[in-house]
Design a protein that fits this description.
By secondary structure, this protein is of the alpha/beta class. It has 3 domains: 10-161, Alpha Horseshoe (Serine Threonine Protein Phosphatase 5, Tetratricopeptide repeat), CATH 1.25.40.10; 176-340, 3-Layer(aba) Sandwich (Rossmann fold), CATH 3.40.50; 346-422, Helicase, Ruva Protein, domain 3 (Orthogonal Bundle). It is 58% helix and 6% strand. The chain is built from 19 helices and 5 strands. It has a 5-stranded parallel β-sheet. α1 (10-22) runs parallel beside α3 (44-60). It is extended.
C-alpha cells in the first residue's frame, strides 16, 4: 500500500513559524512564514508574520557600533577586503528590513486597520532612517488601539525626538555676567548676540552679521556653555550636534543628515546650529580613501553658502584644534569670526573657585587665593572637577571619623588630596 506524503497547510506553516519564533530562531521562523505565504498569497496573518519575523531577524543581526567602526576604519585606511566584508553585513541588514517593509505594507494595503502591522511598519521605517513615514505609521497604530501602551509609547517617542525647537536647558537663567571670562572675550560674544538678536539694527548701522562663529580654545574652557548662553540670550532656537550624530555608514546618509539639520534650522528662525568638536566632523579634505569625510565637508560648505544674510541661521563651531579644520570653512562668509576662549588667568581662577564652592562648606584653612595660585593652567572644567573631588575626599574622611563633633566641612587637606589624585 503506497505511503501518502503529508501535505502542510497554511495553519501548519504558521504554527511551525511561531514555534521557531518562541525560541528566537528567526531564520527558521522566516522560512516557515514564507511557506505560509507561498501556500496562500492572500493570507493576511501569513504576510504579517513574515514581515514581523523579517524585522526581528534584522534586529538580531543588526551591525553593532564596533562593526561600524571597524568597517569605517578599514575603508579609511584602505583595507578593502575587510571593508567589503563589513559592507556586506550592512547590506544583508538593509535587505532584511526592505523585505520586511514590503510584506508589512502589503498587509496594511489589504487591511488598513491592522494596528500591529502599522506598529512594526513604523519600527522598520525608523530603522531605515525614514523618520517622517515612521512617525505617521506609529500614530496610526496608536490611534487604532489607544489602550496599547507599546503603540502609544512608540508614537510619543517620535514626538519627543522631532520637537522642532530645542531650548538650551543648561543655559536657562544664565547671562554673560555668570561667565568667568576676560572683558575682551565677553565683549566679542556680546557683539555676536546683538547682531543675532537685532539684525535690523545691525544692518542699519552698516554691520554685516557673520554666518558662522568659531570658538577655539583648550578643552574645558566652556565653549559649549558659551554657545548655549549665546542662544539663550539672543532668544534663538538651539540645535547641538556632534560628529557621531552626523556620521553614518550608509552611502548618502551622512549628507542627508546635514541637509535635514539645516532645513530644520531654516524652518525655525532665529536658530543656532552648534557643532562640538567641529574639527572631527569637518577635517581637512584629503581625497582618495577619505572620500566619506570629504563628502560631509562638501555638503556642509554647500549648506553654509545657502545661508542668506537675513535668514537668521547661524553656525557656531567649537574646537581645540583649529589647525585640523578644512581651510574653506574659515574663509569669509562661513566661519568668518573666530573668538579665542583662553585658559583662565589668576583672577579668573579666583572667581571660578568662588563660583564652584558657593554651595560648599569650607574650612577656615581653605584660601581661595592660595588654591587659585596652585592651579595655574587649570581650565574651568578642571577647577570644577577639583572642587568635586575635594568634596568626595571630605565625605570619606568625615564618614570614617569617630569624632562626632568634627566640623563637617571641606578643609585644605581635602583639596591637597584632590590635587594629588587629579594631578
Amino acid at each position: 500500500m503506497p505511503i501518502r506524503a503529508s501535505i502542510e497547510t497554511v495553519e501548519d506553516a504558521l504554527n511551525r513559524g511561531m514555534q521557531r519564533a518562541r525560541v528566537y530562531d528567526w531564520s527558521g521562523a522566516v522560512e516557515a512564514f514564507r511557506k505560509a505565504v507561498a501556500l496562500d498569497p492572500d493570507n493576511i496573518e501569513g504576510r504579517f508574520r513574515l514581515g514581523w519575523s523579517l524585522w526581528n531577524r534584522a534586529e538580531s543581526e543588526k551591525p553593532t557600533l564596533a562593526d561600524m567602526a571597524m568597517a569605517y576604519g578599514a575603508h579609511v585606511f584602505g583595507f578593502e577586503q575587510t571593508a567589503k566584508d563589513g559592507k556586506r553585513k550592512f547590506q544583508v541588514y538593509r535587505q532584511l528590513l526592505s523585505d520586511s517593509l514590503y510584506y508589512l505594507r502589503s498587509v496594511v494595503e489589504r487591511d488598513e486597520n491592522h494596528a500591529r502591522a502599522h506598529h512594526y511598519l513604523a519600527k522598520t521605517l525608523h530603522a531605515l532612517d525614514r523618520r517622517e513615514e515612521a512617525e505617521q505609521e506609529a500614530r496610526r497604530a496608536a490611534a487604532l488601539e489607544p489602550e496599547n501602551t507599546a503603540y502609544r509609547g512608540l508614537a510619543a517617542s517620535f514626538e519627543q525626538a522631532t520637537t522642532p525647537v530645542e531650548k538650551p536647558e543648561e543655559a536657562k537663567g544664565l547671562t554673560w555676567d555668570d561667565l568667568i571670562l576676560d572683558a575682551k572675550t565677553k565683549r566679542e560674544l556680546r557683539q555676536m548676540q546683538l547682531m543675532m538678536e537685532k539684525p535690523d539694527l545691525a544692518e542699519g548701522l552698516g554691520v554685516q552679521p557673520p554666518t558662522g562663529i568659531l570658538l577655539k580654545g583648550p578643552p574645558g574652557t566652556g565653549k559649549t556653555t558659551i554657545a548655549r548662553i549665546l542662544a539663550n540670550e539672543a532668544k534663538c532656537n538651539f540645535y547641538a550636534i556632534t560628529p557621531a550624530d552626523i556620521h553614518q555608514m550608509y552611502v548618502g546618509e551622512s549628507e542627508k543628515r546635514v541637509r535635514d539639520l539645516f532645513a530644520k534650522a531654516r524652518a525655525n528662525p532665529p536658530a543656532i546650529i552648534f557643532v562640538d568638536e567641529i574639527d572631527a566632523l569637518l577635517p581637512i579634505r584629503q581625497g582618495g580613501v577619505a572620500i566619506h569625510s570629504d563628502k560631509v565637508v562638501n555638503q556642509f560648505l554647500q549648506e553654509m553658502d545657502g545661508i542668506q544674510q537675513n535668514s537668521q541661521v547661524f553656525l557656531i563651531g567649537a574646537t581645540n584644534r583649529p589647525d585640523m579644520l578644512d581651510p574653506a570653512l574659515r574663509r569669509g562668509g562661513r566661519l568668518s569670526r573666530e573668538i579665542e576662549i583662553p585658559i583662565p588667568d589668576l583672577e579668573a581662577r579666583k572667581q571660578l573657585f568662588q563660583l564652584s564652592t558657593k554651595h560648599a562648606t569650607l574650612g577656615e584653612d581653605v584660601g581661595i587665593n592660595h588654591l587659585a595660585a596652585l592651579t595655574e593652567g587649570y581650565s574651568g572644567a578642571d577647577i570644577k572637577a577639583l572642587v568635586n573631588e575635594a568634596g568626595l575626599q571630605a565625605l570619606i574622611r568625615i564618614s570614617d571619623s569617630t569624632d562626632n563633633e568634627e566640623l563637617k566641612s571641606v578643609n585644605m587637606l581635602d583639596f591637597t588630596a584632590a590635587l594629588e589624585n587629579l594631578g
